[in-house]
User: What shape does this take?
Amino acid sequence: MLVSFCLPNDKDDNPPRQLTHFQYTAWPEDGSDPCMWSMVDFEHKVFFNTLETVTLVHSGMDTTRSSVFIALHDLIRQAKLNQAVDFVDTVSRLRQDMPNTVQTYEQYMYLHHAAQAGIACTGSYTHISAIFLKVHLMGNVVNGKNNFENEFNNLFSFETQLTGGVGDVTQDPKSKNRFFIIPDKKYQPLLQVDSPGEEDYINAVTLPSLYTQTNQFLTQLPMPTTVNDFWRLVTQYNVSLIVAFKSYEKDKSLAIYLPEEQGQSLQCGNIAVNVESVTAAPTWTEMKLTVKGKETQEVTHLTFTERHIEPKNLLPNGAELSGLAYVVTTLMDRLDQENYLTVPVVVGKVKSIRPHAIPTLQQYIFVYETMKLYTEAVISTERHRAEYSSTV
Assistant: This one.
């Protein structure tokens, strides 16, 4: 959260002081360490906007949280200036001023991992005016590989080191998991159990939007055993938009979870799904739904129907294509609201929650190219608005 305000000066002849207040809101309520990517993102956000200013860091809980942030920033700064970092010296110097700095082994390891991620993403924050140049420079070859490949390999190897790899994607014998892609319990939404035979499990994870921590879900396309669970997720968490990628039509693991035409309805356990309208476009289909459970809610369902993608590349696993869509839309939001973006930080954040997201270099380059096209569209729109305003 960011707030800017003016603080009146105690002397009449001095102008008021302009202050910017950044508040980190992603620290888990149980006191455990936050996602390191969100901490790295916060560090970059603060010092990307407050160069050459005096910075005050405080925590309402204790000095542990603020000291981790200070140590992280110091280590990233050391890497920029000296091409090397000294963890022991950094923590020792902080403890001279704040004795309770980095108190446990787990906090020390967290600092190591967060610093490694922060250093790897140094220079990735790009203003909208520099995105064309950024994408062009990413194509330069260094040590036989272009910068896209170098950045992706660093990110992938880093995630593999922390997660132990992304695991197998073959068929899972468990009835509610299409593949061996199991959600981390820390990020998994739990379903409310209302009827006999229901379970609280669903193969899904929650992901943060630009301003909230639990605003979006990634989940697999429904299987015959999970259709009811899918609609329980929609109704219990008041989902208003569903984005789906059409999968291979011969995939027998897919279930019918939507009526096909306007005016039709489908009963899924205690939930009725009705189609109010259908709009077809060359690459997508929009359905307006009325979903009736304990309450009635309006839901928009968008299906991506692009035919030029090979069926084998349309895995309905709630990770690869849905993860790509999440990364692209999150970066678009950042450009719209903040005028800058950082691809590796956003990709790193989603991979820490759903490791199978953005699994290939091809997808990683696609993200950059998409943001280049989006930036071009934004700049063109602003130019047309300016020209129109000047003629009115």
Notes: The chain has ten helices and 13 strands. The two ends are 37 Å apart (CA to CA). Residues 210 and 333 are 7 Å apart (CA to CA).
